[in-house]
Design brief:
The structure is a homotetramer.
Chain A lengths: L1 E2 L10 H9 L12 H13 L6 E5 L2 H12 L4 E6 L3 H4 L4 H4 L4 E4 L8 H9 L9 E8 L10 H13 L3 E5 L3 H5 L8 H7 L2 E5 L9 E5 L8 H7 L8 H11 L3 H22 L12 E2 L2 E3 H8 L2 E2 L1 E7 L2 E7 L6 H15 L6
Parallel strand pairs in A: 1-11, 3-4, 3-5, 5-6, 6-7
Antiparallel strand pairs in A: 2-8, 7-8, 9-13, 10-13, 12-13
Organism (chains A, B, C, D): Sphingobacterium olei
GO molecular function, one term (chains A, B, C, D): lyase activity
Keywords (chains A, B, C, D): Aminotransferase, Pyridoxal phosphate, Transferase
């Protein structure tokens, strides 16, 4: 049984484990003051072309989202997100637990649009009886496998700046977004167009770890305190620093993301060739093909995946997620099994 | 320069790194549902003699403390702790950030006493104008290197049960407490005498990780939700499961703790032999010798440590922390250098 | 200019002011221990037929809602409400500020339906990644002027009990709901069908004040602490006790509510007679007639009210709220002015 | 039985009740937009000599304290207070419930000293493991009946400004502080020396109500939202506006406070004349005479008061609180009864 349910079913890229072993007995300072964390931050700031940025390493996405929101917002300020956004759909009320409302908008293909934001602003004017929209949360890549084009990010940045809203990008799968085949957005663009974003390690080669980047350093003021207060400051911060250093000292991070995308792309092409359509025009390592229930049943015998959405009595969209660790022979086998199932041949 | 400032300056015990590498490409379920986490929990429950317990893995001590308190207490309920307790002294207000007051007591040698508790109960009666004491927080080993004798824990358990207070033990250094030379307390005793406790991994051989144990499973009801909500649920939960499995499948955890204690003990004996006294009668891997400022200055050239407390103009107590990773030659060198400094010989 | 914008534009019913003056120089205990509060609670419990209930007096609706939710829910538990519910639409994120998500449902005519609740339960199963629905919030009368029929409340109570959800009624306008012309629900019914509800004073004759009733006293455990902690415990609790005693020692509370309803009803009848329709089939003291923009403009010269919803380019629904303090001559004048405006005659 | 336990045992000054009745049927805007609130704010700003100030009306002291702290502090910032401060001793953990620690200092006679503050700053440097002191809370008059001299406030203001700490004054009994016999501080001084303060109505003539004054209007930014979110915005805000207008349109507020002080002073003089001493050198409407237990027992038959502190087996300090509503004949009777008890004559 092969698991296409997520991109965190395996451990870390071997280079990371090797580096952890190699440096294991060096004494390093705790709490992120170690040499590896410092070097990793330096390199990250160079790569995004923003040497004045402030970078922090945390251990997971939910943790990062809740601490960023908690650090940036005053009690009455609220977050805007699409309904499918991770903070709304998958984080057990983490944002509300820090005291803030999420105002949900419909979006398009998992993406927030400027008109979504405008509508929220227009309907939140009866001060002080309503919350004050203050931060726009976007995921890139989104939870539907889509990603933002550069002009889309520019439009969002424009409306946010005009209305003094923070633009915050959840980059749990940022690598996948930036290496998508038709992506026109660079790492530097992300830094220029958002106020805060995070670079996901867990879903792209690391054991764990996310790097938050405040491109406006004033926004990071006292972030260290809040990070500690919420239990996110690792004593052995080196294990995050070492991982991000290994991922970014050359191009490993983006190589891994591209491998994950290519795996998905190869599967998607095969599906398309068989005449099937998709729920979203994804482009990254998450694809949502619409298949017949009998084919879904067949594939379920050998592959684990989520049935995402019922389309009608005979069809449903499933979600397949690939990663850097998905091997070519798995991709080949899946395509072959799909073709068999399509042809009505039993698979096992 | 050797660092005696803490017990998290190195990485993990090599067996842990090996196991992470060995299992790296296995696909496992996320969020702590992996086989390693399940097996580690099973073994832990056996070892504490409490098969009905509920066990959860988290990434750090502050995180664990704040989530346990948050899960157990209603808004008006408060925590009792000594002033030197980690939650009061070193966690950036994490407990208050979850909405709860810490009522501090003086304690003795870093330990809460039954009379401390009684006094808090006696002075918190003017309902509803005061907070309601509900949870007693103790660290074992304490922040002053001391540990609780069995009869002390029994007394605390008694007064807590009588007054419907939870007894919660922060076991960041539980291994050190249980393997202290004169300790009469077993792992099973801890489970029987506390309502909740955690077993620290970070400071005893792991890269990161703490295991929370609810000995009364009802207290753990819905703990998974709260853990997720606070950002403590790792996607790759396997990395915690694998570490705890490795530490507990045989006696590694306690071996490492004993090594740390022995290292401290050897240094303490040498210090005592030279005629110096200690701030506390520690017994674990943290010792607080009182030395002259000139000796402190000399040692500072080759060793990093905290000056803990000024005693008078000529003397101060320093804190030395050893770990499983402190090698014998370092212990020997330190003792030799101390003897030199004591004899007025310059060290370098 | 007469104000139909709300039902709190005047002070209190004169009997209340008289009673405050009459008892002014008596010394009474503070913090709700005064004789008047005790007597008012006793009478309320009698009137709802639930002598075991626990009753508390607070100063306003938002305060009451946030404290009840805060007292009943654990951190990961969430509230279900219609989008038009006061907690969602008008309370500046008060519920989220206590740490809890509001899951919004569409409802019908401002009312939650059992199928709304079922749908929320069905879509919140992916534990622990989602919040746990735990409390159903309903307003009665609703923000759209409608009220719950007895069978509707019974259905809600059934699904809530079956799924261990609390049913909480915001009764800011409970008097208006129970005295609506076709209402088949009694005060006792409310106590039997909800777990907690509050009886609004502010909008029905009091200067300020709401009475929270826990029909299951265990749910009120330690509520006094939380009420104090949130700043809701008045030093001079007598001023709430005196008002509720005056409102409930005879039938004043329901008389005032009925007066408000009758005023609205008279206006609604006149509007209907002129051929206009309504946005909702209200029945209480809030009505939402759909008028032409030119008539709305005419009426605006002499009357203040909210334009609630644009219907089309020529029509909009306005909201008119009456109260016990709306005098007959105002009702008559408004109807007369409306008839003039309808006939194209200018009003002034 | 006469109650000396507090200064809120009676209702309001009759002029306030009269004004509420007189204005009762006027329609006014809700939520503090009424004419009376606006006028009261205007007058207050004139009287404190700070026309740029921002003023808000709330209903009680605990509510005011928690909302001010909540509005001013970021999550990791803490409050400094003496142990006897109302927020620490009597508010059920309200400050911690907003997420902030109170760092307690010993103080002198219930007052914070600059050296207290310096010591807190000196011991909170290990960023980010400690909280960040940010707001100094002082009560004036204090909970021990004492008040701040002008030079004391100046010293506090100096150290606060130097260290970017907010100076916040809880003025539940501000009137009593400013009208104390030897007070050298004016209403204007308070506005100049603090960043935020509140003027207590409840304990000085009002039914309920406190006026918060932000002397630096930027600090009040969005305070209205937070006030609403915490349930402190009264629908009928007029009842607060009318009361403060009545108290401040002439000198009523300070007259009432002086009456309370004079009553206490007369009793204190009589006690002193009999040879007794006091726990604190109070000066306002709270006095703490040290009496023999037999005299305390005698007085308890006719007067209610708190026994504040045991001095030894035969003596205790009691707390007597007078108010504007304490009549001369009560003062006379108490003194006469005390003289009898002192002479060993039974009182009844």
């Amino acid at each position: 049984m092969y698991n296409f349910k997520n991109d965190y079913a395996e451990g870390a890229h071997p280079r990371i484990l090797d580096k952890l072993a190699e440096t294991n007995f060096e004494q390093q300072l705790g709490y992120g003051e170690d040499n590896y964390s410092l070097e990793a931050k330096f390199i990250l700031k160079e790569k995004i072309g923003c040497k004045g940025a402030s970078v922090f390493f945390l251990t997971g996405g939910t943790q990062t989202n809740l601490i960023v929101v908690s650090a940036l917002l005053r009690p009455h300020e609220a977050v805007i997100s699409v309904s499918s956004g991770h903070i709304q759909a998958n984080e057990a009320g983490a944002i509300e637990a820090t005291g803030h409302r999420i105002i949900t908008v419909e979006g398009e293909n998992g993406k927030v649009t400027p008109s979504d934001i405008q509508q929220v602003l227009d309907t939140h004017t009866l001060r002080p009886h309503v919350v004050k929209p203050k931060l726009v949360y976007i995921s890139n890549a989104t939870e539907l496998g889509t990603y933002y084009a550069k002009h889309e990010l520019q439009s969002l940045a424009n409306i946010c700046r005009k209305n003094r809203l923070y633009l915050y990008m959840d980059g749990a799968r940022l690598g996948n977004a930036l290496t998508a085949k038709d992506s026109d957005t660079s790492f530097e663009d992300i830094a220029q167009l958002t106020d805060v974003f995070y670079i996901g390690g867990t879903k792209n080669g690391a054991l764990l770890g996310e790097a938050v980047v405040f491109t406006i350093p004033q926004l990071a003021q006292d972030f260290d305190y809040i990070l500690k207060q919420r239990g996110a400051l690792l004593a052995k911060g080196r294990i995050l620093g070492i991982q991000f250093l290994e991922l970014f000292k050359d191009g490993l991070y983006f190589e891994l993301a591209k491998m994950a995308n290519d795996n998905a792309s190869e599967i998607a092409d095969a599906i398309r060739k068989l005449g099937y359509t998709f729920l979203t025009d994804a482009g990254t390592n998450q694809i949502f093909p619409i298949l017949s229930t009998s084919i879904i049943e067949s594939l379920s015998k050998k592959y684990a995946f989520y049935v995402w959405k019922k389309i009608n009595i005979n069809q449903a969209a499933i979600r397949l997620i690939t990663s850097w660790a998905t091997e070519q022979h798995v991709v080949d086998a899946f395509i072959s099994d799909l073709e068999k199932a399509h042809a009505g041949i039993e698979i096992y």
